[in-house]
Amino acid sequence: MTMAISRGTTLSSALDGLHHTVDGMRRRVAQIKARRAAYNRTFTELNVLSDRELSDIGIARCEIRRVASEELSKEQTYEV
């Protein structure tokens, strides 16, 4: 009888560990999707501006991808 309880406890522990791992993976995928969406938003907002408007804020059109990536890096440092 003790053996059955031990197996059940081991299986339960294994399932708990698996559940924890899957939850962690889901959270990570959600973070990646959110970061990609933020990058896309920034890129799109800058890309719709005219060359003159970009120049007014000190950005060349060829720098849009870099600026969007840098903004994403700044946001990441403020996450808790």
Structure report:
- With about 80 residues, the protein is mostly helical.
- Helices cover about 85% and strands about 0% of the residues.
- It is built from three helices and no strands.
- It has helices spanning about 1-45, 50-55, 65-80.
- Helix 1 crosses helix 3 (about 65-80).
- The longest helix has about 45 residues, at about 1-45.
- It is rod-shaped.
- The termini are far apart.
- The mean pLDDT is about 85.
How many H/I helices?
3
What structural class results from the helix and strand content? Answer: mainly alpha
Radius of gyration: 23 Å
Query: Given the C-alpha coordinates, what overall shape results?
Result: rod-shaped
SSE pattern: HHH
Distance between the termini: 47 Å
Characterize the biggest β-sheet: none
How many beta-strand segments?
0
User: On the 0-100 scale, what is the average pLDDT?
Assistant: 86
Level of helix content? Answer: over 70%
Low-confidence segments: none
How much strand content do the residues show?
Answer: under 5%
Q: In summary, what is this structure?
A:
This protein is an all-alpha fold. It has helices spanning 2-47, 51-56, 64-78.
